[in-house]
Amino acid sequence: xxxxxxxxxxRVSKAASRTRSRAAKRTANGNGAARAxxxxxQLLKFYRDMLLIRRFEExxxxxxxxxxxxxxxxxxxxxxxxxxxxxxxLGEDDYVITTYxxxxxxxxxxMEAKGVMAELTGRRSGYSKGKGGSMHMFxxxxxxxxxxxxxxxxxxxxxxxxxxxQYLDTGGVTTxxxxxxxxxxxxxxxxxxxxxxxxxxxxxxxxxxKYGMGTSVDRASAAKELYRLGDPxxxxxxxxxxxxxxxxxxAAEEATAYARSGKGPIILEMMTYRYRGHSMSDPxxxxxxxxxxxxxxxxxxxxxxRKDILEGGHAKDDELKAIDNEVKAIVTEAxxxxxxxxxxxxxxxxxxxxxxA
Length: 357
Ligand SMILES: Cc1ncc(C[n+]2csc(CCOP(=O)(O)OP(=O)(O)O)c2C)c(N)n1
Ligand SMILES: [Mg+2]
Description:
The chain has helices at 2-29, 40-65, 80-87, 103-108, 113-120, 154-168, 186-197, 217-220, 245-260, 289-299, 301-311, 317-340; strands at residues 95-97, 174-179, 202-208, 237-241, 266-271. By secondary structure, it is an alpha/beta fold. Helix 7 links the parallel strand 2 and strand 3. It is globular, with a radius of gyration of 21 Å. The structure holds thiamine diphosphate and magnesium ion (MG). Residues 99, 101, 149-152, 179-182, 207, 209, 211-213, 278 line the site of thiamine diphosphate.
């Protein structure tokens, strides 16, 4: 009897915990999502970091228009709150890997604007010596593992990075970013299975900006709740307002603690929006101008934080203006530095092709 009672109470508590975990997913889904409480300094840092990405990307767009950046160039304008909020919860032992929409991630990892801009313009002083361009930059020092042009690639490679952290017992976690357009790839699901099986310390961040290259997620994905991508293999997931840096920070704090505690992977679906085309050569026929304008006007993460800071009395207008000026100066300097840097020597064609064993 006692055993039966124990078994049935275990069944009840298992069911309760299933309900709890479903409830947790649902509450993160609604408007009542948690927002992080942070210090004044942190608020100002969020503002600065998001603005740096915005201004950097605007400048990159300009340089592209002037013919100074060749190849592909995917801007992150509109999505800044995602990477800034997530990065703010990571430490020195943590790794980051992302897609080709990567300039913001590099800046948020602490890579220098000068080196990123020099790489975009194909110069010798760029992070990949001018040979990688927009989609292929890395920084061993900042634990930034790219920049990947292959859609979905950050997921299995990110799982591999997390496996190395687990194997070497570094205490670090990996944050692997990918887009809504990658969510239904085979390699993504295979990697989710392996990382759940091995309880890898990885946070999968889906940047759901509602569109892939030429179509919307609604038209491309049968699954509508991407945060539930890991349901079949028991990976928990949360949907987060990716246009609110404080909501991102709150969700990322929890996710980082979860992954770090040895419980395995976790998914955060960031609901976000890109204001510019998929890449610089996008006719954008799959959405209306009105939709973009509405998002910019009503949901912009930087405008909202600015308002929060001013209305909350955390800083005065001239303090924010000083930050605007500081950011502008960094970006202007980066663009000048890039344009004054020499191109790689032709002999560089033969270096960095294979790793030195
Ligand atoms: C394996 C692979 N298939 C197709 C492409 C072409 N492609 C580049 S970006 C892209 C759309 C990806 O959209 P999403 O994952 O939502 O990312 P976003 O561009 O919105 O950030 C496609 C299909 C590619 N680079 N790699
Ligand atoms: Mg997308």
